[in-house]
Every structure is written in structure tokens, then in C-alpha cells.
Amino acid sequence: MQIILKNPLDMHLHLRDKDMLKAVAELSSKSFSAAIIMPNLLPPITTIEDVISYKKRVDEASKNTSFKPLMTLFFKNNYDFEFLKSAKEHIFAIKLYPAGITTNSQDGVNSIDSESLKDTLEAMSELEIPLCVHGESEGFVMDREKEFVPIYENLATNFPKLKIIMEHITTKDSADILDKYPNLYATITLHHLLITLDDVAGGMLKPHLFCKPIAKRYEDREALLNLALNAHPKVMFGSDSAPHPQDAKESCGCAAGVFTAPIALQVLVELFEKHSKLDNLQKFISDNAQKIYNFEPISKSVTLEKKPFIVPDAYGEVIPMYAGEKLKWSISSIS
Ligand code: NCD
Ligand code: ZN
Fold first, then answer.
1. Ligand 1 contact via 14 beta carbon (within 6 Å)
2. Residue 102 Cβ < 6 Å to ligand 1
3. pTM, to two decimals
4. CATH assignment of 2-334, given 1.10.150.130, 3.20.20.140, 3.90.78.10, 3.40.50.2000?
5. How many angstroms separate the first and last alpha carbons of the chain?
6. Mutation probe of ligand 1 site: the residue of 102, 216, 254 with most atoms within 8 A of C-beta
7. Distance CA 320, CA 128 (A)
8. Any ligand 1 atom below 6 A from CB of 70
9. Which of 45, 59, 6 is nearest to 300 (CA)?
10. What pLDDT, in 10s, does the model give residues 159-192?
């Protein structure tokens, strides 16, 4: 049994820099046509020069594959119209992080309200630059995304022409507001379709499943599955694959991030097959994102076969999700 995925897209990906970039880039660029590359380097990508030089390094690391990195800027509320106008041809979106909420987000925004972000968000609306948002408050960890819902609603209402993408949604609350605002969209990761907090901390602590936002309750996972498996048109795949060295994960003070790049397509096929929804995977993995962002990716065909794939224990110094386990599907060819 085979399935062919056309132009898979990863609409939220961390590729890092230097040796880590070299180690992980191809694990995405081989099987995905394009990916939105997150700007949370240290220091973050905040200038046009940063974007251009980071793109060169990503292109170099993925040069043996046909892949388009879709570059982003790290949101600052001093970006003005002129700056954004010059940046537009180099970027696909801008990513907004609340300050300090996740890995390398110290330089993020301290208060996210439509008044203080007005000039930048109005300029982005006019220039049609989408805004990707890490939507978590500083509250109790299980309530952070829920507490961010009014902020999404406020932004969506005050900037009706701005395309706002709720990144890596993990709760039913986020799923529930999707259809209320025409300019609100969402990405969903692989791991949040699979795990709940029980898998992370219900038994022995699993550092490789620890990420931001943290996996939530069963009813939340159900709501995400409902969106993804039915390929809700405002929802797209964004792996949020976030590699950290093994010693940063297996340490006292575990870095947040799950590394799924090398297993994402295989496991998505298994999941959609299990729920008899394979026919919807093409939309979730590519077609929806093309419509939402209005772009056409490089053509790529990924054929998966129902043949076991044993996940390597490690890729360099990074431990993938399902390390050492047997998956039902493997990638048999890419053209
Ligand atoms: C991401 C990372 O490591 O850069 N970590 C994570 O847990 N998802 C940052 C992010 O997307 O929050
Ligand atoms: Zn991320």
C-alpha cells in the first residue's frame, strides 16, 4: 500500500544555526517542499540583513534538496512602514513572541495590546504581511493559551485585514475561536495530535516530549484531532520541530521543544489512516496552507509505503520523538 503526498509544507519549523542547522536542515528539506523558518535565533532575526544572511545559510545547508525556506522576522513593535515595505520581498511572515515565554524569546513583546502594536500591525495589514503568534500568557502553565484567547480576539477585531496565525494551538479554546474571526488561522503540530500532559509528566518525566505550549488535556487533543483529521480549511500543519542537543533536554532545566522533522510525514500518515481520514491529509499537509498564504510551492512528490521504519536513536546529538521505535510507514521515494 502506498500514498503520495504532493508538496508537503511545514508551516512552523526551527532549523537553528551553525552546526545544528547543518545537522537538521536536510531532515526537513528532503521531504518538504517548503517550510516557514522561525526567527528565534540568538540574537533573533530582526533586520533585513539578518534575514538575507540566515536564508543563505539555510540554502547552503539544504543545497542538495529542492526546498524553499520561507523566512520570517522576529516581531518588534518599532518596525515601521518603510522598514516593512523593504523587508516584504524577503519575508513570508513575522513571528510575534511574548517576551520570555519560550526558547530564545527574551527580546519579544512585553505587552500585547492593539494600541501599543498599532503602527506596526497596521503597516503589516496594508502590506499584507501575515502575523504568526505564539499565543501564551504568563499565567499558570495549563491556562496560558486559554488566557491568550482574548488577545487573539482583540487583534483579530482591531486589525481585520491582518492575517493572524495562531501557532501550534493546543486547546479546545483556541479551536473554538477559529471560525469566529475570518482573519484567524492556526497551525497544529504532530506531537499535539498525539500526546497529552499524561505522556509528558503522568509517569516518569519525558524530557523529549516537553515543549511550549505544553501538551494539554484529552478534550483538547480531541478538538485538535477534529480540526486536523477533517482538514479544517483554516488549519495547516506546522511541526514546530524544535531540535535541542541531548544534554540540553536531559538536564536539570530541560529545554522546551520536540524534534519531529524526520518522522512527521510517516506518523501523520499512520494517524490519518488509523482514523480512516487519509483522504484529508493532502489538505492538512499542503493545500490548506497554499490557500491561506496564497502561494505556490516547489513541486515535490513524496511516496510513503506501508513498510516499517525504525526511528534512529539519535540524529547527531538530537533525540527524535519515537527514538528507537517502529513506525508503520516509511518514505520510499521523493521526486
Ligand atoms: C521552540 C524552540 O525550541 O525554539 N520550543 C518549543 O517548545 N516549541 C520555541 C517555540 O516554538 O515555542
Ligand atoms: Zn516553534
1. yes
2. yes
3. 0.98
4. 3.20.20.140
5. 18
6. 102
7. 36
8. no
9. 6
10. 999 999 999 999 999 999 999 999 999 999 999 9
